[in-house]
Write a structure and sequence with these properties.
It contains no helices and 17 strands.
Length: 237
């Protein structure tokens, strides 16, 4: 499907946990992240279990599988700040098959954070800033598949990152083995990151993927395929 629009949602949403940010209040552009929660963390994802009892309609593979949400190490949910002083839930699924955790997965999301979007081209819209995360993979050098669920009112046309050639690319596109689709009442962005590959921040095949520069964004299509240096409306480089 196209990487610029989401398809019409088809399936019924399942109940999935959403939680507040696990960090102290910190600025994201003009936004402020939600207050930090407190409590135990059975899922080892830096998200207290008590916060996971606050459910919203976000589909995923953490309901109906006999495992409590708090024990799902491959799923992380939180509430993030949005443009316009509002908030919205997001959910990241690792080792994902169409948004569901693969059976027997040993993948672990170590952290999930919201950061200010920097160095994006002029005209790019990043309604929830940059989504930074760290996740383990079962075998060093593996390509890990992820799904990011968003509120349908989050206006984006892909999951964008700057590649090693300085070109903005949409990881949630067919060209990169991903897609942008609708599921239930949510938008789902599917994408892959290879351990030690160009989008892994440490560049080392060490069993851990660190993704620090990607954003669910609406990118001006006029710059797609151009390097950051040559794009006529690029800024901040």
């Amino acid at each position: 499907m196209s990487d610029t629009t989401a398809s019409t949602p088809a399936s019924s949403p399942l109940q999935q946990n959403t939680v507040s940010d696990d960090k102290q209040n910190q600025p994201v552009g003009k936004l402020t992240l939600a207050s930090p929660p407190e409590g135990s963390d059975a899922g080892r994802d830096s998200v207290p279990d008590a916060q996971k009892e606050r459910t919203v309609s976000i589909p995923g593979a953490v309901t109906g599988d006999g495992i409590q949400n708090s024990a799902q190490a491959a799923v992380a949910s939180k509430t993030v700040a949005k443009d316009g002083d509002s908030t919205a839930p997001i959910t990241l699924v690792a080792d994902s098959r169409d948004g569901k955790v693969s059976a027997g997965s040993n993948t672990h999301i170590v952290s999930l954070e919201q950061k200010a979007a920097a160095n994006f081209p002029e005209g790019a819209e990043t309604p929830i800033g940059v989504t930074e995360f760290v996740a383990t993979v079962e075998t060093a050098g593996d390509s890990a598949k992820f799904s990011l669920y968003l509120d349908p009112n989050t206006d984006v046309n892909g999951y964008w990152a700057l590649n090693s050639a300085g070109v903005w690319v949409n990881l949630a596109s067919e060209s990169y083995g991903g897609q942008m689709t609708g599921e239930g009442e949510q938008v789902r962005l599917d994408f892959s990151i290879q351990d030690g590959g160009e989008f892994d921040a440490d560049g080392v095949a060490d069993g851990s993927v660190s993704f620090i520069s990607g954003a669910a964004a609406r990118m001006p299509l006029s710059i797609v395929g151009q390097t950051a240096e040559s794009a006529p409306d690029a800024a901040g480089f």
